[in-house]
Specification:
This protein is mostly beta strands. It contains one helix and ten strands; from the N terminus they run αββββββββββ. The protein has one domain: Jelly Rolls (Sandwich), CATH 2.60.120. The chain has a five-stranded antiparallel β-sheet, covered by helices on one side. Strands 6-5-8-3-10 form a five-stranded antiparallel β-sheet, with no helix packed on it.
């Protein structure tokens, strides 16, 4: 079942890139184009239905939720401890996480010396306005 979900997710992502007329590139080759303190976000595709980002996290991401968006996250590299709803999860390269609308989530702590690198796909189109931080 997990392999089916991952295959479907990757197909959907590649299809989205194709429909946007963008070049397809290896996600492993995408690197941050700047020096960053903790989190760096690089948009890679967007239309009215979906927005895709590569996100690098060095230490943590504050607890937040999205009221109008679902988020699918695929771990490209690294390891971390993550909060998803009421669960604390250890995540690593190859893991897929589906985050339903309204679900609190956070990267509690990146483990190891290299940043966590993820593919984040948000639906519908994400402009940054639907990120509600939770204390």
């Amino acid at each position: 079942m997990i392999k089916y979900l991952i295959t479907t997710f990757v197909f959907w992502f590649v299809f989205t890139l194709y429909c946007n007329g963008q070049n397809i590139t290896s996600l492993e080759k995408i690197e941050p184009n700047t020096v960053y303190e903790n989190v760096h976000v690089k948009p890679i595709a967007s239309n009215e239905q979906v927005t895709s980002f590569i996100i690098w996290v060095k230490t943590s991401v504050r607890k937040h939720k999205h009221i109008h968006h679902t988020e699918s996250v695929y771990i490209l590299d690294g390891k971390a401890e993550m909060l998803l709803g009421e669960q604390t999860l250890n995540i690593q390269k190859g893991d897929y996480i589906f985050i339903p609308k309204g679900t609190p989530h956070a990267v509690i702590k990146v483990m190891g010396n290299k940043p966590l690198k993820v593919l984040s796909v948000q639906s519908p189109k994400f402009t940054g306005e639907d990120r509600i931080f939770i204390e």
